[in-house]
């Protein structure tokens, strides 16, 4: 028997709603990037993936306030001391239990870039066959600026963050940290007792209600497109 393993505390870190959000966002972002690069008839799917990402982002913003312990923004580690400690291979246990310092910054960056990408997409126009549902609500100058950002700056930022995320996963895997597995089954073996995220049926029912409301809100936003 592995004495070291016997002293580890298996702790629920990522609740099911957070895990489902994570993998749904992975699929949606990949679909968003691929369909956007293909263009043409694939833009119909680009629009659908954008709608899905908007709903998911709204859900994550709300779940960051009421979700499991380690999913809450209040427990993100963004202090410069924690960032430097992680870069030097040191730090307190809680800095590496949920999102690490660099992981917290990565999540925040991802959400900001995705919000900007979806927001700019809502008022973008490719002047060929696609126009965002809210283009009629803003000036032509705003549409032009948003379109340029969406197709050039925002897309590159998003792809860059995806690549950095993949490199971080490879690095953590090389260091023996099974972060991908934790996002599948939700648990981490910890050397010290740390707070666990609540993940019972009440939390899952609450998450389902929040998700339904976010999907409805996203559908409503996209329904504001003028009928032709």
Describe the structure.
The protein is mainly α and 228 residues long. The protein has a single domain (16-221), classed as Fumarate Reductase Cytochrome B subunit, CATH 1.20.950. 64% of the residues lie in helices and 4% in strands. The chain contains eight helices and two strands, in the order αβααααααβα. Strands 1-2 form a two-stranded antiparallel sheet. α3 crosses α8 and α5 (101-122) runs antiparallel to α6.
Features:
228 residues; two-stranded antiparallel ribbon; 8 helices; disordered N terminus
- What CATH first level would be assigned? Mainly Alpha
- Please, what is the average pLDDT? 88
The total number of structural domains is 1
Which structural class best describes the helix and strand composition? Answer: mainly alpha
| Sheet with most strands | 2 strands, antiparallel
Order of helices and strands: HEHHHHHHEH
The percent range for helix content is 55-70%
User: Beta-strand percentage?
Assistant: under 5%
Number of helices: 8
How many strand units?
2
The shape, in one word, is globular
Q: Tell me what the CATH architecture is.
A: Up-down Bundle
Within the CATH hierarchy, at the fold level, what is the topology?
Answer: Fumarate Reductase Cytochrome B subunit
Give the end-to-end Cα distance, rounded to a whole number of Å: 70 Å
CATH superfamily: Transmembrane di-heme cytochromes, Chain C
Radius of gyration: 20 Å
Strand order across the largest sheet:
1-2
The low-confidence parts are 1-5
